[in-house]
């Protein structure tokens, strides 16, 4: 989710204001960790039991921009990852890259990714955006649509931003029309965490009606494939209260996904950094606390009543530290996501429904580019942990 550096600046302050009562201080304190960020690597990832995935499709997301930021060659990185025996890959159509000028449409970078995944026999979820697509900074609107900045603390509504809506619906329609004859694509994703705030960089948010118009455009362009929409599942008290406050007017992205999409995707990050403190880092880790289970149970209950499939759109499998690009120290790992957490986070989500009849539709691991970086630096443990999950069982 790549929002580390920006988000940490105000969570504690806003959460303290929102919590107010002393009765919520105990949950907050129990979710805080102060740790050295760099931890010794162990072989614990080899001993963690792995829950069987059964019919749940396993896969990854791929971010060419993140690969470049890490000093990796995107083509070679994707080919390396596609050689692993998973079923599904999520790719992104980045509006600002494909339409750098008003009359331009350059799909070359997305073309080679789709073609490579198709050759490898993978199923594809294609994230269309338009305004938001996965990967920091999440907002990828071309500059010619942002000549006047969007006003902060406002909803981006169709009536107030008709040119942006026309551009967004035209873009998603054009991308769908280009790739709808590709049999490897099994679902379209509309927006990314569609109506949630953009970390702390911006306080404007898309309105539900804006996203509804994009969904309608996609369904017109292709009525045969399902639409997936995702949302961030808070796993700690400060984040939960902060998100509830900022989305109080129209709900959060998971609610919008239930209303507008066929498949609901959950973004699950159980452990992440807030700030560094004199050689230590302050982390939030509350995903296993009983008071954090209500929303998750609510989502699964709605799915069980016929609300459509649930998937993990982003399951944390790379560090979320107090910087934007995850650190990669030699022969050490970062506390927020060690190799064993690749498996443990997967187990936690699979355990929500296992061994019952209602299973997750898919589970996509987040951070695959980081695994390749680690392997090139002499640490194959992240990829090896992922391979353990992929083994039949």
Task: Compute the number of strand runs.
Answer: 15
Q: What is the tally of helical segments?
A: 16
Side by side, the strands of the main sheet go 3-4-5-7-9-10-13-15
| Count of individual domains | 1
Structural class: alpha/beta
Q: Average pLDDT across residues?
A: 91
Assembly classification: single chain
Query: What is the CATH T-level topology?
Result: TIM Barrel
Helix residue percentage: 25-40%
What is the radius of gyration computed over CA atoms, rounded to a whole number of angstroms?
20 Å
For the record, give the distance between the C-alpha atoms at the N and C termini, rounded to a whole number: 29 Å
The CATH superfamily is: Glycosidases
Instruction: Give the class-level CATH name.
Output: Alpha Beta
Low-confidence stretches: 5-9, 15-22
Question: Can you describe what's shown?
Answer:
With 393 residues, the protein is an alpha/beta fold. It has one domain: TIM Barrel, CATH 3.20.20.80. It is 38% helix and 18% strand. The protein is built from 16 helices and 15 strands. The protein has helices at residues 4-7, 11-19, 25-31, 44-47, 64-69, 74-82, 95-98, 108-119, 162-179, 208-221, 237-246, 253-260, 294-307, 339-350, 368-376, 381-390, and strands at 32-35, 38-40, 57-61, 88-92, 123-129, 155-156, 185-190, 205-206, 227-232, 263-268, 272-277, 280-284, 310-316, 332-334, 362-366. The chain has an eight-stranded parallel barrel with strand order 3-4-5-7-9-10-13-15, surrounded by six helices. Strand 11 and strand 12 form a beta hairpin. Helix 6 (74-82) packs parallel to helix 8 (108-119) and helix 14 (339-350) runs parallel beside helix 16 (381-390). The longest helix has 18 residues, at 162-179. The protein is globular. The two termini are 29 Å apart. The model is unreliable at 5-9 and 15-22 (pLDDT under 50).
